[in-house]
């Protein structure tokens, strides 16, 4: 359980700590390690994730491959922890970095968005003033009162780029009223405005601001439905079930014309590290999880402000 810096609010609720599950796989003296974040929105808890991991323990102990794992567990946090731990184990055993094993270029340092928690317009303006030196702010919103919130943030951070995350909190009629007004405030992107199972109204429409699928996008199996609804998808390892599916999802999505955001649940640097391999393919990066915590794992990622550097081998991969 990682304590957070204050209270973190989104449209679905608030919390002051975030639970995570860490998987370790040891073989011949090498240890692969990874962290996942159980997410109640997807029916997950720490207990359910641990039960899923335990269900494949015998197969993992018998040397289950990364490929076999994809069929053994569904996409989600449990598979993410095991998948990324196996990637880490393979990198340590072979003396190579994970990106070399994946056949991709090493990730460069990249600027992450910094998330401002949902709050009153006055409190969000104060948070914006404290973050006005940062290049990209991500605002958690909820629907009613959002124009006032974003107006307040723009006043507090006049030079920062802004993206907005509604976490399924808007109603359909808000699209035509809010999006043009937010565009006028310089908002570049809105994540998941409507509930994931109620977004048919988006099909074939263009809006004043591009929309990004988050809760509606987990794996490649979702892309057929998302085509024509969203021009961008948010790829998170805890949704895709690990780095393996995330890499495949990014490649197929880009081939279909989607743009990419690489996102995260709120976790430590160990949870962020594998996702950095996806950042060269992304238009937006939102890997600020450790910056929202009161403390981080050690060793952690190197954050220079909001510029995050690729992980050292001692951390992951």
Description:
- With 317 residues, the chain is α/β, with parallel strands linked by helices.
- Helix 1 (46-55) packs across helix 4.
- The longest helix is centred in the first third of the chain and has 18 residues, at 77-94.
- Helix content is 32%, strand content 21%.
- Strand 10, helix 9 and strand 11 form a beta-alpha-beta unit.
- It folds into two domains: 2-102, Enolase-like, domain 1 (2-Layer Sandwich); 110-308, TIM Barrel (Alpha-Beta Barrel), CATH 3.20.20.120.
- The strands form four sheets. It has an eight-stranded parallel sheet with strand order 6-7-8-9-10-11-12-13.
Write the layout of secondary structure elements.
Layout: E1 2-10, E2 13-18, E3 21-27, E4 30-36, H1 46-55, H2 57-61, H3 66-72, H4 77-94, H5 98-102, E5 110-111, E6 114-116, H6 121-130, E7 136-140, H7 146-156, E8 161-165, H8 174-184, E9 187-191, E10 211-213, H9 223-226, E11 232-235, H10 237-240, H11 243-255, E12 259-262, H12 269-272, E13 284-285, E14 303-304, E15 307-308
Parallel strand pairs: 6-7, 7-8, 8-9, 9-10, 10-11, 11-12, 12-13
Antiparallel strand pairs: 1-2, 3-4, 5-15, 14-15
Helix pairs in contact: 1-4, 6-7
Largest sheet: 8 strands, parallel
Poorly predicted spans:
none
Number of domains: 2
CATH architecture name of the largest domain: Alpha-Beta Barrel
Q: C-alpha Rg, in Å?
A: 19 Å
Query: What gross morphology would you assign?
Result: globular
CATH class of the largest domain: Alpha Beta
